[in-house]
Structures are given as structure tokens and as C-alpha cells.
Amino acid sequence: MDAVVSGVGVESVEYHQDSATVRIQFDQEKTPASMAVIAMLAEVMDADPVELDPLHSTVDPDALDALVRVRTGTDGDIHVTFTHEDHAITVFSYGVVTITAGHESSVKNYGGNAGR
Q1: Fewer Cβ in 10 A, N or C end of the chain?
Q2: Domain ranges for the chain
Q3: Are 53 and 74 in contact (CB under 8 A)?
Q4: Are 87 and 44 in contact (CB under 8 A)?
Q5: pLDDT (tens digit, 0 to 9) for every residue of the chain, 116 residues total?
Q6: What InterPro entries does the annotation carry (predicted)?
């Protein structure tokens, strides 16, 4: 675990300024995808996670976790894309979440050369 985002451990955080996208890698063995999404979205929006609309108003968190959980002996990638809090969110089965703001100004700049 390299960083803590809104109380959730993540392995890496990258900000891609050209697309206003934040990409995180998280440990699927320790963190459910739904928790990673809410933690990162709260960070991006500079808000407390409890202030956000509940994730279940957009997607079933249990179903999301089940779809993108660690699997053995499977081929290919599964990913789920949805919009929540005016952000496009994609969760990949290999432990990555990308979040792109509907409005660039709402994405926190993670600075420097992250994602470059």
C-alpha cells in the first residue's frame, strides 16, 4: 500500500491532466471496489465520503464488488462503467478505477508529473 485516500489504502494514484482523469490502483484482496470508488470520488471532489450521494443510488455496490472481484483461471478483463456525482467512473477487474469529471474544474490536480 503506497497511499491512503479518504481512509482507504491504494497502491497508486495518477492524474492525467489532458483528460481530467484520475486513475487509482487498489489491492482487491483488501479493499472492495465499491469502497475504492467512494474513497477516490470523495478525494477528487474534495468532500467527505458521507456527503456524497450513496453509491447504491447509481449502482448496486455488492454487484459491482462481485463483478470485478479477483478471479483465478479466467480470461479477459471485466469492467463496469457508470456515472455518479457527475463523474464517469470505470472499475476494472484488475484493481483499477478511473474517474473523469463532468466538469474539469471539479477534479483535484494531483500535480507534478503524475500520469505522464
Answers
A1: C
A2: 3-106
A3: no
A4: yes
A5: 466 565 666 777 788 888 889 998 998 888 899 999 998 898 888 888 889 999 999 999 999 999 888 766 666 688 999 999 999 999 998 899 999 987 443 444 444 333 33
A6: HalOD1 (IPR040624)
